[in-house]
Amino acid sequence: MAVTILKAVVVLIIGFVLLVKGADFFVEGASSVAKMLKVPSLIIGMTIVAMGTSLPETSVSIAASMNNQNTLAVSNVVGSNIFNLMVVLGICAVISKLQVSRDVLKRDYPFSVLCAILLLVCGCIGMELGRIDGIAFLVIFVGFIVVLIKSAMDARKRGEISEKEREMNEEMSEMKEQPVWKSIIYIVGGAIAIKYGGDWVVDSASTIATSFGISATLVGLTICSVGTSLPELVTSIVAARKNELDMAVGNVVGSNVFNILMVLGVAATISPITFLMENVIDIIVLLVFSLITWVFCITKKEIGKKEGIIMLVLYAIYLVYICLR
């Protein structure tokens, strides 16, 4: 038993490393190819680069869905969104005040709440996220990307640079064009790492859950969600120490929208996802936490240290609850 668990933990860690590094390589290779094809940096930034942070969640949820571990697929996404919202933003707010842009408050944040409500409604109807639901999620996701691009282009015409474009320009400036052969190796190698990383995370997480007699939902909400959200956490903490956190809230909100619409949309389109009552409760918790954070943002147009501590305490209470239920 002990050997089996130790092996599962080692495989889990390797799986997370493959997911994170695979996503980095895939995004770098794909962005380089897109640049060579003269695709505008704005389009690359808001599609390939922006979706890159959700690749680990995508891989884990698709692998879980295909292996009939549907509850793991849902709990991984919901758990990641709760972790991003309460822990990533909470820690950053404790380190340095988080400013919230007008676009995030008026457009992106309300839309992320609507996405969570949509997931709750679809999940409650028949307790399943079917293929039609998945396709609808993907269509809405494409619409969201189009709106972001149009908004950025309109701002550019007015002689302004939107928050989202400024963020993407910073990320794109760090990427260098590479030879075609190297880009292809990055894309193929990254895709393979993401695929196997997702499989290994799901398999080892399931083994750990079985060995300790705990539910796949709990594993998805804790181990898997934290593991796939580590890149966002590390990046945000580094940015907080450098006092470069004016886009942190927008990053988390965007990531949460991608996780619901793209990740679950792809997973459900491949294989319908069955919901448990626990999944419904967790989505309601996500909604409540989203509204609390939204109130923090609206009242002061920023999230300060006090609010950050409250968010971390709420997450700790939630962790105790899911472990005891």
What separation lies between the terminal Cα atoms? Answer: 25 Å
> Main β-sheet: number of strands, strand sense, barrel status?
2 strands, antiparallel
State the shape. Answer: globular
Number of separate domains = 1
SSE series: HHHHEHEHHHHHEHEH
Gyration radius over CA: 19 Å
Figure out the total of helices.
12
Organism: Roseburia lenta
Membrane topology: Multi-pass membrane protein
Subcellular location: Membrane
Main location: membrane
Kindly describe this structure.
With 325 residues, the chain is mostly helical. It has a single domain, classed as A middle domain of Talin 1 (Up-down Bundle). Helices cover 84% and strands 2% of the residues. It has 12 helices and 4 strands; from the N terminus they run H-H-H-H-E-H-E-H-H-H-H-H-E-H-E-H. The protein has helices at 2-36, 41-52, 55-66, 70-95, 102-124, 131-157, 163-173, 180-212, 216-241, 248-270, 277-300, 305-324, and strands at residues 98-99, 128-129, 273-274, 302-303. It has a two-stranded antiparallel ribbon. The longest helix is centred in the N-terminal third of the chain and has 35 residues, at 2-36. The protein is globular. The two termini are 25 Å apart. The relative contact order is 0.23. The model has no long low-confidence stretch (mean pLDDT 82). It comes from Roseburia lenta. Keywords: Membrane, Transmembrane, Transmembrane helix. Residues 8-149, 183-322 form the Sodium/calcium exchanger membrane region domain.
